[in-house]
Amino acid sequence: xxxxxxxxxxxxxxxxxxxxxxxxxxxxxxxxxxxxxxxxxxxxxxxxxxxxxxxxxxxxxxxxxxxxxxxxxxxxxxxxxxxxxxxxxxxxxxxxxxxxxxxxxxxxxxxxxxxxxxxxxxxxxxxxxxxxxxxxxxxxxxxxxxxxxxxxxxxxxxxxxxxxxxxxxxxxxxxxxxxxxxxxxxxxxxxxxxxxxxxxxxxxxxxxxxxxxxxxxxxxxxxxxxxxxxxxxxxxxxxxxxxxxxxxxxxxxxxxxxxxxxxxxxxxxxxxxxxxxxxxxxxxxxxxxxxxxxxxxxxxxxxxxxxxxxxxxxxxxxxxxxxxxxxxxxxxxxxxxxxxxxxxxxxxxxxxxxxxxxxxxxxxxxxxxxxxxxxxxxxxxxxxxxxxxxxxxxxxxxxxxxxxxxxxxxxxxxxxxxxxxxxxxxxxxxxxxxxxxxxxxxxxxxxxxxxxxxxxxxxxxxxxxxxxxxxxxxxxxxxxxxxxxxxxxxxxxxxxxxxxxxxxxxxxxxxxxxxxxxxxxxxxxxxxxxxxxxxxxxxxxxxxxxxxxxxxxxxxxxxxxxxxxxxxxxxxxxxxxxxxxxxxxxxxxxxxxxxxxxxxxxxx
Length: 604
Fold this sequence. Notes:
The chain has 604 residues and is an alpha+beta fold.
């Protein structure tokens, strides 16, 4: 057997998956420390979380790869570890990380037990045909209940209790044994270093000075500096100026072989030339492209507009650059009568949308206005044709649409038994359909419902946390579309239809939602010198109205006496002026008004 083939046999690739806040990043930190990859001097918490936003929120947003060396029984192994996000909105990052691995550590908090996203990630790993090692973390906590949680792992996930490993990522207890188990349990990569080169692009980012930096997993063959390679999707050929590995900083090397994970720099200046999931091959070789990844499906959409009209081109460039770092969101240009030129962007969920907006403002320095989020709808017209829309403004009100179908999600919630009643009432209020109940133990229950996605994306998670005092967790995935009695709720400000504030709701709640948003707008829009009417309409019917009173100057203050007709004359003159002002005056709608739909206090 060749030395390269022997080297491949000593490679292990695995990822850490878990529910949010179960200790993935802490375990990754401890592995880096125990393996000697990071010195004590350079050590800090969340070593693999580079983004300022990740550190502030204490969550992982981007999957990060790192290479470590580990010696077992006198043999040195090369281990590639990928730390993944835990929130449901970033499950696409998790699936991409799994495609670059042969095994997964499934982390479970010894105090909190199996959560909704724990189960979802476990099923993803099974679908990806990965070897799974269940790991019980935080076993040194006073509130830890290892026996109960191990039973939950076996009951919910079907993993034997005897396979569960007990560790404490904070203190380092059991981490060395866990690395030995990784070497023994997880298989080596199956690629052949002597075959033609095939490398999978699993991530990328843009550097102002070096261009696009491509993250690759070498599946077959080997790659060297100065090799000429091509992108199979575009056919474009580049020369490799630098290749290297993550330790955890980028460290240049001369060669990489099958099974290894690293980066390539090819002086690519155009963002569109790199596609996540593409195959990299040698320039003159003819190989079959790898399967790549399933394209992520956006379920939540909103409009993103520059606060200043002159920033449109800067916003477009910022979105393109951010798309290279996060290919799970997409955007297309759109225009609005109220906000001008902007983009319609699609996201995987509400937190994903919030993170993208914050990154846009921080990394590019552009102030943006974001419209209330909405989901995609399927329309059926009288002529039998179907159309998918992601913006309420595209829903015609001329009677040509016969059916509107909305996305339905399967929702799994793990909640305390004491909160079952309040959660079932919450789901009932959101037009949920009960599916089943599973008792995970004496205190926790798994509830499953079918819910319209539009009812989930606004404040459902916040309500769930409130009803369960913070102990409830949820996971959801969209299963299809279902016809419902949906209408377009239009908002008119001073008689002008503000398309950016319109949204699609169920007919039963249209009046209540319309009245709530008008009350919010009344508080957010400043008073003008003339009265501003606010109206909510469905079709041609006004279903709710509020008015913003006009600011009024005391024009009779200068009259110190005389006949009442003097005062009346001044008041009539003021009244005529306000009437004329109302016909030509513009109402300025502040940015806060566009978040009114997000902040609605729903009636319980």
